[in-house]
Design brief:
The chain is an alpha/beta fold and about 425 residues long. It folds into two domains: about 250 residues, NAD(P)-binding Rossmann-like Domain (Rossmann fold); about 150 residues, Rossmann fold (3-Layer(aba) Sandwich), CATH 3.40.50. The protein contains 13 helices and twelve strands. The protein has a seven-stranded mixed sheet, with helices on both faces. A five-stranded mixed sheet has the order 1-2-4-3-5. Helix 6 crosses helix 7 and helix 6 packs across helix 11. It binds 1,4-dihydronicotinamide adenine dinucleotide and 2-oxoglutaric acid. 1,4-dihydronicotinamide adenine dinucleotide binds next to helix 7 and strand 7.
Length: about 425
């Protein structure tokens, strides 16, 4: 099934992206204290390597010119090229890009990939632009970034409101800036491309599948079945939809969904494919789905359920709603959906959180497979992709759980410790910081 076209919210909702940098720094500092990170390496990892901000003009359909601001933050490349998505959203700014780039560094490190971390995007509301305008915006942005990205330097991918079409435009524009003999050899400048243009079969579902796998591993550890478990999902785009799809296949029941248009619920279960199909013909919005009741956005997270999957934006679970969450498990599909203060409340209440850098790492792992496929001139099949993904995710899950148990700490701190330790080791091995 294709990735749904998603339009951003059209009504006010609390989205406090401002605190994302403070959150990721608190998480980093607490893990660094725990592992007694080398002070020099701590200094390096606490800041971003490069921050690229570009203002570029684009001609609109009506002939006027609009200026857009795009960002690419390259946090760290000690383990390999910068890697991470590009987001098109009104909340994109330098602070959000910095925080998201840092999370990418920890995510790629934890997953054992030969990558560092980067992230970026354009501050814009894509619902206000035609497809032709979005294509021109993407191509101008890529052209503006061209000297700062590259298949062995910085490799963007899809994120909120970007998809395989966006990546195809980016690859095409980037390749056109290279000398003729090098053009097609550069298609792995981005991952998440359409399958006909170097993309990997399975990259579309990889993040949601990875979220599902983490939930399955958690249930197996508790000797519980997912059959009949109730779950709620915030964000019904690429990640939220696919996570729901795989959970439903395993017998779990979707009981509430929230997207940018609003929230819906049905305690008897919402059919994932029906909600998806409804949104497809409704500008990507779930609100108004006939077999559901509307739900106040404020009450979404307090819906009765076993599993809660935030798969939209950052800072969604906070001190305001954490006390009312009913789920036993938060599986973070989004990046930074739980802020540090909200997390303390959840942990005190005995709720397990599978942290973003572990839970949603299926996407970047599949991106790595796509990059290898392009680099080696291969075409991988879906079965191989899913099997390899499964194996890698299980390995990460087990390592994080084992570390958390051995150190009597929570899963996020464990994931951060493992991720930072791998980077520390690389710096030390190079002999730069005796
Ligand atoms: N696409 C990928 O492969 C990966 C995505 N992620 C993260 O997962 C999250 C979702 O990404 P995608 O599914 O790719 O994006 P998407 O653009 O496909 O979907 C985003 C969804 O969030 C909803 N949304 C937006 N604002 C909202 C709000 N204020 N309240 C409730 N819902 C809202 C949208 O309506 C849409 O349903 C992001 O945090 C992203 O960084 C993480 C790893 C990989
Ligand atoms: O696939 C990728 O390279 C990165 C995806 C991403 O942006 C993320 O994991 O947050």
């Amino acid at each position: 099934m294709a990735t749904m076209t998603v339009t951003p919210k059209n009504k006010p909702k609390k989205v406090a992206l401002k605190g994302m940098m403070e959150n990721v720094m608190e998480q980093f500092n607490s893990a660094s204290d725990q592992i007694e990170l080398h002070p020099n390496i701590r200094k390096i990892l606490a800041i971003t390597n490069n921050e690229i901000v570009v203002n570029f003009p684009v001609k609109m359909d009506d002939g006027t010119v609009e200026i857009f601001t795009g960002y690419r933050v390259q946090h760290n490349n000690a383990l390999g090229p910068y890697k991470g998505g590009l987001r098109y959203h009104p909340t994109v700014d330098i602070d959000a890009a910095r925080a998201l780039a840092m999370w990418m560094t920890w995510k790629t490190s934890l997953a054992g990939l030969p990558y560092g971390g980067g992230k970026g995007g354009i501050k814009l509301d894509p619902s206000k632009y035609s497809q032709a305008e979005l294509e021109r915006i993407t191509r101008r942005f890529t052209f503006a970034l061209a000297d700062n990205i590259g298949p062995e330097h910085d490799i963007p991918a899809p994120d909120v409101n970007t998809n395989s079409q966006t990546m195809a435009w980016m690859a095409d524009t980037y390749m056109s800036t290279r000398p003729p003999a090098e053009r097609t050899a550069n298609q792995h400048v981005v991952t998440g491309k359409p399958e006909g243009s170097g993309g990997l079969e399975g990259r579309d579902r990889a993040t949601g599948y990875g979220v599902f796998l983490n939930i399955k591993f958690w249930a197996e550890k508790k000797n519980e079945s997912l059959k009949g478990k109730k779950f709620i999902v915030q964000g019904f785009g690429n990640v939220g939809y696919w996570a729901s799809h795989f959970l439903e296949k395993e017998g779990a029941k979707l009981v509430a969904v929230q997207d940018a248009s609003g929230s819906i619920r049905n305690a008897n279960g919402l059919k994932v494919a029906d909600v998806f199909n409804y949104a497809q013909i409704n500008d990507g919005r779930i609100l108004g789905f006939p077999e559901a009741f509307d739900l106040d956005d404020e009450n979404f997270f307090s819906t009765e359920c076993d599993i809660c999957i935030p798969a939209a934006l950052g800072n969604q679970i906070t001190v305001e709603n954490a006390p009312n969450i009913k789920a036993q498990l938060i599986a973070e599909g989004a990046n930074g959906p739980t802020n540090v203060d909200g997390e303390k409340i959840l942990l005190d209440r005995g709720i397990t959180i599978i942290p973003d850098i572990l839970c949603n790492s299926g996407g970047v792992i599949a991106s790595y497979f796509e990059w290898l496929q392009n680099r080696n001139g291969e075409i991988w099949n879906l079965d191989d992709v899913m099997t390899k993904l499964d194996k890698k995710m299980k390995h990460s899950f087990d390592r994080v759980c084992a570390f958390a148990k051995a150190e009597s700490t929570d899963l996020r701190t464990a994931a951060f410790c493992l991720a930072i330790q791998r980077i520390e080791k690389a710096y030390i091995q190079r002999g730069i910081f005796p």
